[in-house]
Specification:
The structure holds 2 protein chains of 2 kinds. Chain A is an alpha/beta fold. Chain A is about 40% helix and about 15% strand. Chain A folds into 3 domains: about 170 residues, 2-Layer Sandwich (Aconitase, domain 3), CATH 3.30.499; about 80 residues, no CATH class; about 110 residues, 2-Layer Sandwich (Aconitase, domain 3), CATH 3.30.499. The longest helix of chain A has 17 residues. By secondary structure, chain B is an alpha/beta fold. Chain B has a single domain, classed as 3-Layer(bba) Sandwich (Glucose Oxidase, domain 1). Chain B has an 8-stranded mixed sheet with strand order 1-10-9-3-6-7-8-2. Classes of the chains: A alpha/beta, B alpha/beta. Chains A and B meet through helix 2, helix 3 and helix 6 of A and strand 2, helix 1 and helix 2 of B.
Chain lengths: ~375, ~140
Amino acid sequence: MDLSREEEKLLESDNPAVAKCMEILVALGEIFGADRLIPIVSAHISGISYENIGEEGLEWLKSLKAKVKVKTTVNPAGMDSERWREMGIDEDFARKQTEVLKALVDLGAELTLTCTPYYVYKPNFGDHLAWAESSAVVYANSVLGAMTNRESGISALASAIIGKTPRYGLHVKENRAPTVLVKVKEDLNPSALGVVLGRELDGIPIFEFGRKLRDHELKQLGASLASTGNVAIFHVIGQTPEWRDFEIPKEKLEVDEADVRDECDPDLIALGCPHLSSEEIMEVLRFVERRGRPKISVWIFTSRHVYEEMKEVVEKLERCGIKVFRDTCMVVSPATEKFECVMVDSGKALTYLPKLRGVKAMFGTTEECLRRAFE
Amino acid sequence: MRIKGRVISKGVAEGVAIVSRKKFSFLGDVDVETGIVIAEDSDILGESIADKVFVFPTGRGSTVGTYVLLRMKKKGTAPKAIINVETEPIIAVGAIIAGIPLMDKLEVNPLETIKSGDIVRVNALEGWVEVHGDRKD
């Protein structure tokens, strides 16, 4: 990889944090065959929950005495920063999590604490980004036409501090071309479809649906695909911004079912993986209003940005007996562990809850999940 | 014998080699407390990688493993240096943040050139490895 004289100098920087971050970017560039570093518009860092990074991750973050060079957003933490007691989070965890957040603020990151940073600020078509969080990566590439590889929390942070990323993979237009046409024959749930397809797909899909998908459906499809597969971009004929830029691939796949049902007896209904948009929160309210109290706990997760925007709606939901948490989600918070079976409308949560939180998970559409709560 | 290679994580180290022909994950294949390999299917099962120059083909498995090398380094159970045939991002970033020298893509296949017990010098500043055949074991 070719480095400019200034970039070479950063490798020898007096600031060990800068030198390390540069070393990481150069190593990744070498491994992936990048030709050079390119400037990025923003970075999004994952690995924020103390539950996931532990003491070593916290110490590493604290050891970095540097400031980010670009707009830097961060993934959800292990708890709602204000209502953590209500979630059943203990004092020790809260203290450690608060230390992680402080380290991030010291680095100059914005405590967006969401997996949907694109609802806080929307990157432009063609922007180069260094985003971690697989569901946000796939949304940014596919729905917005921004360009990012699937970064790890550490490589995204290194890019934030340097303001650059190695140019390879999805930063290069021709690598974004679809390799398999996926014809979806029935009106399948996008979350379920993503889970099933992610397991068997190899390459970049371009979908042909019988109807236009809504924004949250594209979000769910991408999140699910990325949870069971290595997918970082997809296209949809007639809908996503780059679908016309490439030839339709000859390889074809037809899908007419996506069965992910696995029954258990839910003691928690959890929505908001990825974090809910304001539109989705409105839909939850429309469903639950005038139905009385839910018989099963219902937790929904969103960003503090959307939460503030939707304060009145959130208050109404709380009056209906629905808990609305910010800054965290069912997948990264240890709070979910005290339940037996969690019902979700998210393919990503369905994939990760058993693996990361050791609880059973079952799938239903958003409406099925909410209906179950009031049965 | 001096062999050139690609520097991934900078640093210099010298130690006794431990060579495995299997892909390796620091998350699950090794006991972090002792540095002893616990992966049942490993060809170095029961042996320690602590303070050794650890030679193996490449990494495998979960991205959650990045901080494990840092944890091992703090506990004193990490390898002194790593030589891969061709490395991958999880091992690479893990080695960089833990400050463990890592080289790959040597001129010759390290799995054939280096034997467990050899004394190996890794100069991951200048980009070379020296193998001294006098076995210690």
